[in-house]
Design goal:
Layout (H helix, E strand, L loop, with lengths): L1 H5 L3 H8 L6 H14 L3 E4 L8 E4 L4 H6 L12 H17 L2 H14 L5 E2 L2 E2 H15 L3 H14 L4 H13 L3 H14 L3 H21 L23 E5 L2 E5 L9 E5 L3 E4 L20 E2 L7 E2 L2 H8 L10 H4 L4 H11 L23 H4 L2 H15 L9 H6 L10 H19 L10 H17 L1 E6 L26 E8 L14 E6 L2 E6 L22 H12 L6 H4 L3 H5 L3 E2 L8 E2 L2 H8 L8 H7 L7 H4 L14 H23 L5 H17 L5 H16 L3 H19 L4 H16 L4 H17 L3 H4 L2 H16 L1
Antiparallel strand pairs: 1-2, 3-4, 5-6, 7-14, 8-12, 9-10, 11-12, 13-14, 15-16
Helix pairs in contact: 2-18, 3-19, 5-6, 5-7, 6-7, 7-8, 7-9, 8-9, 9-10, 10-11, 16-18, 16-19, 18-19, 26-27, 26-28, 27-28, 28-29, 29-30, 30-31, 31-33
The chain binds S-adenosylmethionine.
The site of S-adenosylmethionine has 18 residues, from strand 6 and helix 19.
Protein name: SET and MYND domain-containing protein 4 isoform X1
InterPro entries: SET_dom, SET_dom_sf, TPR-like_helical_dom_sf, TPR_rpt
Keywords: TPR repeat
Length: 794
């Protein structure tokens, strides 16, 4: 991108940098002509791990390379590479290194062409059946079963696939299916020895079946969650100083579902490409499914693959040969497995990966937001939209944006990306997407809309929660659990209605995702006409007001007008405050930058109740009398510079402690030093300063590792008391801390753990409603433990 930008002469750069929405088409036209006339050859690197591209832009080589044909494309399929990976997979399998074999077979599947043949068999079918063997060795029976199905959908008479399917079914206790699998395997097996082996296995399973009397359970792994919770209210759109926003026409209690929406378009983030499904964004299972036509996307199931790519894995196999000698029951069974029905899939949508497939490079190379813009454009065109005039796409989406306020450099980048994107998409939509200034300026606005409105889709990072179950479903332990639950950004999406919710640093709604679906729930009671606002990122309790304002301006291009940033409240006062030097005074002392920020806030509109809550920390008119470095309650002076040095010195011990915690080896000496440092922090910082909470949390983790659980519980409680002040009692951050505390208390047999679990369950349910138990399975387990705990106690 930097090299492309360097082609633009200074005067044109300035014109582009100062352009507004109205003169955008002329800026786009200048740049388009410049690139079309450029005779320069240049090298473009988009900063990804793909090889750099050497391109003459004018000759179409840049676009040519980005949209290369499947035979030559790096993202295309490669039979030789697949065969080599298969060979390495086989070697690892023979050595018993199943985990590495799994990786090789999966990589081979990613690059194997669908129609390639290897030793008289379809290569993809062979790779699936090989991977099925590895999965069976690794005790992943369900994954093995699915890979067998995939083999059979390509090659229904693959005896080994029926045989392994039978083994997997038998291991899972599905004896009835296992018997049918072995019967079919025996039928299609050609060798005498093979037939005998299957027959022996069949006899064993038949005997087991007779004994077991098991009720057959047909697991439908691809079944989507049923969703039947009604939406509580139809929200209204109003306009305020924040632009359009959502308000409630009625009073709404906490934890009410107020909005559910599927994305208009969505894209996976690059760092999650190997770990999460490119369609539903859930974590990939061991039997991930590649795109049949290119080597980039990976899916958790065929359903997701078909929905994203719009094509089946293969043609429906010809079952005639295999069916002719089978009973009616077995014939039906073969049909079900080899020709699964995806009739319930939504077919009204434009498959979002279709225009990116067949080996084109650009979706792998361009930034995610540009790929997302491409998906929106493809959907627009796929639904019959045409770029006849200058604003139809922009009007259709009707989303706000900040193009005019964007930095000059960002404007230039946006236009260059729009030229590249329109040229790439032209290969797929030759007549619908003309490369001209109208199309390009609409794409520029689209990118600005994406920057203002796209929502990050997050997932909880996998972790071993307390009371996790082993494979057999037994509770492994309720050992103290001390790590923080972390969320990872996995995708970026446009939800057209969801983007009408404004931001507040003190939000009253919470957004979360199940697969691709956006859910929004109230976290507090909402009065009639009250705006429903969620947090785009920074929240009261996490960052002080000046840092929040800066972050929102830098990353989201607006000056926050929320009540959290315009009214004085306890959290912003205490979060980074120092304590008063007078031990009997609970007032706060602020440094200059925080003081100046708080001083600008309105104090007049505070209610009597709000004023009385601030009372212990400050006199509400104290800003007039006291200044920075002075206690806002009694006016005493504190030397901020030396106080900062005291804190820095103390913090060195907590940095060391954290390092030891990370390596799971905590020494008694480091803990004693940290305890002394905590005293020093407490005599310098305000009692509700967030660093004290962090220090208490570190000590709690350290005492857990030393096995001193009572002390761990005490420090955890101290941390929670501070966080409650900063965030409020029902914030999800408190839920996370309660999770730690409850696991510590349960480990030492303290019945207060039961109360803790009740409280954390309520917080999680308030934020996630009925999804809480599926998203956080440890809740069920902890609740079960609680029941046992209570009954044992009685
Ligand atoms: C996702 S949109 C929300 C809907 C938008 N208000 C509209 O009219 O379409 C985000 C934009 O809304 C405005 N906005 C949202 N929350 C705000 C806040 N707390 N203070 C000021 N402006 C806000 C900003 O312009 C921001 O870029």
């Amino acid at each position: 991108m930097e090299k492309l930008k360097s082609l633009v002469p200074k005067n044109l750069e300035q014109t582009v940098g100062s352009s507004t929405v109205d003169d955008l088409p002329s800026s786009c036209s200048f740049l388009l002509r410049l690139f079309q006339q450029s005779q320069l050859f240049f090298q473009v690197s988009f900063g990804c791990k793909r090889p750099r591209i050497f391109l003459p832009f004018l000759s179409g080589k840049l676009i040519g390379d980005l949209t290369m044909d499947p035979e030559n494309a790096l993202c295309g399929k490669k039979k030789d590479a697949a065969l080599e990976l298969k060979r390495q997979g086989n070697q690892c399998f023979l050595k018993g290194d199943y985990a590495t074999a799994l990786v090789y077979y999966s990589q081979a599947l990613q690059v194997a062409p669908m129609n390639a043949v290897d030793m008289d068999k379809n290569l993809v079918a062979t790779l699936y059946v090989n991977r099925a063997s590895v999965l069976l060795k690794m005790d992943l029976q369900l994954e093995c079963l699915r890979d067998c199905n995939r083999t059979l959908q390509i090659s229904s008479n693959y005896a080994k696939a029926w045989y392994r399917r039978g083994k997997a079914n038998a291991s899972m206790g599905n004896f009835h299916d296992a018997i049918r699998d072995f019967q079919i395997s025996k039928n299609v097996e050609v060798s005498f020895n093979g037939k005998k082996q299957v027959d022996d296995e069949l006899k064993i399973i038949q005997r087991q079946y007779k004994r077991s009397n098991t009720v057959q359970e047909h697991s439908n792994n691809n079944k989507l969650d049923d969703f039947d919770e009604p939406i509580q209210v139809k929200l209204h759109v109003t306009t305020s100083n924040k632009g359009r926003g959502m308000v409630s026409p009625i009073e709404i209690p906490p934890s009410s579902l107020v909005h559910v929406e599927e994305p208009y378009a969505l894209v996976i983030l690059k760092h999650c490409r190997e770990t999460h499904c490119h369609y539903c964004l859930n974590e990939l299972p061991a039997d991930k499914v590649p795109c049949p036509s290119c080597s980039i996307p990976l899916y958790c199931s065929q359903r997701c693959q078909i929905q994203a790519g719009g094509r089946m894995l293969q043609n429906v196999p010809d079952n005639k040969e295999i069916l002719k000698d089978l009973s009616d029951d077995l014939r039906k069974y073969v049909q079900e497995i080899t020709s699964p029905s995806f009739a319930d899939l939504r077919t009204d949508d434009v498959p979002e990966h279709k225009h990116e497939c067949d080996g084109v490079h650009w979706p792998a190379i361009l930034p995610s937001e540009i790929v997302l813009a491409g998906r929106i454009l493809a959907k627009f065109v796929g639904q019959g939209g045409v770029f006849a005039d200058a604003s139809n796409l922009v009007d259709m989406l009707n989303l706000s944006h900040h193009f005019s306020e964007m930095h000059a450099d960002s404007k230039l980048e946006c236009i260059i990306y729009s030229i590249i994107l329109s040229s790439c998409l032209k290969q797929f939509f030759p007549s619908q997407l003309p490369v001209n200034e109208n199309t390009i300026s609409q794409i520029v606005i689209l990118i600005s809309q994406i920057r203002t409105n796209s929502i990050s889709i997050v997932r909880m990072k996998s972790f071993d929660a307390p009371g996790s179950r082993d494979q057999s479903g037994r509770l492994s332990s309720v050992a103290p659990f001390t790590c923080n639950m972390e969320q990872v950004r996995v995708g970026q999406a446009i939800y057209t209605t969801g983007s009408l919710f404004n931001h507040s640093c003190k939000p009253n709604i919470h957004a979360y995702f199940n697969s691709r679906t956006l859910f929004i729930r109230t976290t507090a009671s909402v009065t009639v006409g009250c705006p429903l606002e969620l947090s785009y990122g920074p929240q009261v309790g996490q960052l002080d007001c000046k840092d929040r304002l800066k972050l929102l301006e830098d990353e989201y291009s607006f000056k926050c007008q929320c009540s959290g940033c315009s009214l004085v409240h306890i959290s912003d006062l205490v979060l980074d405050a120092f304590c008063c030097i007078n031990p009997s005074c609970f007032g706060v002392v602020l440094d200059r930058s925080i003081f100046n920020c708080e001083n600008k806030k309105t104090k007049d509109s505070l209610t009597v109740d709000e004023q009385s809550r601030l009372e212990p920390f400050m006199l509400t008119d104290s800003f007039l009398h006291a200044g920075p470095s002075h206690c806002l309650k009694c006016g005493s002076y504190r030397n901020i510079k030396s106080s900062c040095s005291t804190v820095d010195e103390a913090w060195i011990h907590f940095t060391r402690l954290q390092q030891e915690i990370n390596s799971n080896r905590v020494s008694e000496t480091t803990v004693s030093d940290a305890l002394r440092a905590l005293c020093s922090l407490k005599s310098t910082l305000h009692a509700y300063n967030k660093r004290i909470a962090e220090a208490e949390d570190n000590l709690s983790q350290a005492f857990c590792l030393l096995g001193k659980l009572e002390l761990a519980a005490d420090h955890c409680k101290a941390s929670i008391r501070i966080l409650e002040k900063l965030y409020g009692e029902n914030h999800i951050a408190i839920g996370n801390e309660l999770l730690k505390l409850s696991s510590i208390l349960l480990s030492v047999g303290d019945c207060n753990g039961v109360e803790c679990i009740k409280r954390l369950s309520e917080i999680f349910r308030c934020h996630y409603g009925w999804h809480a138990n599926t998203m956080f399975p440890f809740l069920n387990i902890l609740e079960e433990e609680t029941h046992k705990f209570v009954s044992t106690d009685v």
